[in-house]
Every structure is written in C-alpha cells, then in structure tokens.
Amino acid sequence: MTTATGVSAAAERSTTAHVVWASALGTAIEWYDFLIYGTAAALVFNKLFFPSFDPFVGTLAAFSTYAVGFVARPIGGAIIGHYGDRLGRKTMLVATMIAMGLGTFLIGCLPTYGQIGVWAPILLVILRFVQGIGLGGEWSGAVVMVIEHAGNRRGFYGSLVQVGFPVGVAASTGIFALMTKLPEADFLGWGWRVPFLVSILLVGVGFIVRLKLAETPHFKEIVERKEVLAQPALEVLRRDWRSFLLAIGITVSEVGLAYLLTVFTVVYATTKLGLPRQVILDAVVYAAIVEFATLPLAGWLSDIFGRKALYLAGGVFSVALAFPLFWFLDSKEPALITLALVVTMTLTHALLFGPKAAFMPELFRTQVRYSGASLGANVAAALSGGFSPLIAAALLAWAGSYWAVSVYIVALSIVTIVATLMAPETARDSLRS
C-alpha cells in the first residue's frame, strides 16, 4: 500500500514518528522557556525588578510583564503563521526556536533594578515580548506539522505534542524548586538565573532535531497545485472568520486554566496562605507529571468519541471544580493540595488541551491552517492566558477571598462550552484543502 504521494506505509509511519518526536521535544523546550518566566514572576521578579513597590503591588507589576508575552503572541502568530502558510511549516518552526531561545537566555543575563534602575524592568518587558513572538508561532506550527502527517489518528498523535506542556511545567517548576533550596541570598543573587541560562543548551538540541524534519505532504500538495495564498492571515479574517471566532471560544477556558493552575496557585499559596514555596511547587510538578499520561489518553479518546465530547466534558468539570479547588488549597495540607491540583489538571486542562492539537487546526483549510491555528490560539491566550494570573490576583485583592477567582473560572468555562456546541465535529472528516 502507498500513500497519495507514493511513499510506502512503513516509511510514512517512520516519518510521522520522527515528526511527532521532533515537534514534542521542541514544544517542551519552548514551553519551558515561556513558563519559567511565570514562576520567576511569582517568586522573584517582584523583589529584583520592582523593589520600590509594596510586595503585593510588585507581584501585580511582575504579572503585568508576564502578560506582555501574551500580548505579543497574536502578533507572532500572525507573522509566523503568514510565512508558515507561504514558506512551509518546517522553516518557521526552526525560526521560532531561535527567537524563544535567545529571549530566554538574555533574561538570565539581565542586571536587576538595583544595578541599572528603571532600565531593568524595561529590558525585561522587551525580552518577554520577544519570547511571546516566538511562542506565537511555535505551538501552532508544531501541531499543524504533526496532524498533516498523522492520517486518521490526528487526535492521538496531536496530543503527543501537547505533552510538551506538562514537560515544560514540570521542568520549569522543578528547576525553580531546586533553586529555592539555596540560601535566600544566593537564590536572589544568582540562583534564579540558572533556569534561564540552561535553556540555551536545550534550544541547541531542539534546533538540530528540527533541522531534520520533512515538510508536510499537505503543504507540498498546495505548492504543487500553486494554491499558496499571498495573504493567508488576512484570508483567515476575511473568509474563515467563523472558524477563527470558534477557535478563540473553545480555547479561552483551557488556556486560562493552564496559567491559573500553574502560576496563580503559586502566588495564592505562598502569599495568601503563607505556605512554603516547596509545597505548592511540588504539587504543580506532580500534577504536570500525571498529564504525561492523561493528555495522550484524551487525544486518543477524541479520535473515538469526537473532539466535542471531550471538550464538553472538560468544560463541565471546569465549572464543577472551580470552588472545590480552593477548598482543598485552603486546607493547607500538602497531600490535599497535591490531590486537588492533580484531579483538577486531569479533569479540566487535560480533557481540553489533549484534543486541542487536532481540533484547532482541523477548523481551517490547508492554505490558511498555520495562520488560523496561530491566530485563534494566540488571541485566546492574550485574552485569558496572560492576563489570568493578573486578573485573579486583582480579584483576590478586591474580594478578599477566592470566590471571585472561582466565578472567573466558571465564566471562562461557559464561553468554551457555548463555542464547542456551535463548532462542527471534525474528528471523522479529512483535512480540508
């Protein structure tokens, strides 16, 4: 048996396996780069880059610079998606890794406020913007690359790329947990820089692996038919606007939960509850480790039962667990806190994020798939992801209790449920061109 392009089935499986491995590895490195900033914002940036503020105000300021990366993501998504649909998926995946790697490494080299004054937070914001540009085209390019190689098992193979997120969470949180064992003076002096500086080694490995990727058969086909569009990003807004809006809607809950569970809970536990940093960081790591299994499981189930079934289940569980999550956190018991994060991450984020790698790109035709997935995912990330820790911290300060944050989670979840009900089921259809 041969594929449409004349490649043997065995060779096609080998190519798919290599593409999945390279995409997952690169995505894990990119998420590590992006997420260590969030942990640093929660633990150290308020002290080193905004020391003239009240500690809580300093935390808000640090989260504001954290959000800058998400403001940059739609810009990066539009630019990188445009060229990904014109020049190819592989070329832009290599470019995004370079942008992310350099931005992250240079953050680790930055002088602090005490050394250069106001220029420290200014440079921090600039480098965070560079990070956001890079990640804006990274995830969408990786999943498009995989599902355009994956045949009828797009949900499962796409979810393997998603494992890069918990790998990035576990690695970024774990290395910070290790660094916090240092004496406080050493941690604030040099320990916080280590997670940023070592990323350059990881990026080097990912860069070499991605150089060996093969371009997707779907992109080759539209090149051969001379159907590459001149302005794919504009075409998304002009002709594929309904898919674009649905992509935003199905994503806002998942991306908001991702950063509430991995970033805001660290702030809540350490500042509001006064718990040791190690307790909440360990809980986040354990929850991320469990997702190594639950994300592929969710992707596999979406191939069987459909993308919408998994998304609706994730949305309903997000509503149901919005309040119990904080009940368990408020117990201040390490075992209960870990259990709460593991269960919540599994039943909410995993059920949404696992099938997303297939669901999002499937909404768009080949000519605009990279641009559509990039714009949909990154506009949603800008709306709910980057601002979620900041909004949650402000709601906590306003209400004096977690209930306002829980209501915020419920509101995001309802948006995703409604968008899912309006979206077409794509699991059993061929990719559109």
Automatic annotation (TrEMBL):
Positions of transmembrane segments: 31-50, 56-80, 92-113, 119-144, 156-178, 190-211, 244-271, 283-302, 309-329, 335-354, 375-396, 402-423
Domain Major facilitator superfamily (MFS) profile: 19-427
Superkingdom classification of source: Bacteria
PROSITE patterns according to UniProt: MFS (PS50850), SUGAR_TRANSPORT_1 (PS00216)
Subcellular location: Cell membrane
Pfam families: MFS_1
Signal peptide positions on this chain: none
Record keywords: Cell membrane, Membrane, Transmembrane, Transmembrane helix, Transport
Bilayer topology term: Multi-pass membrane protein
Name this protein carries in UniProt: MHS family MFS transporter
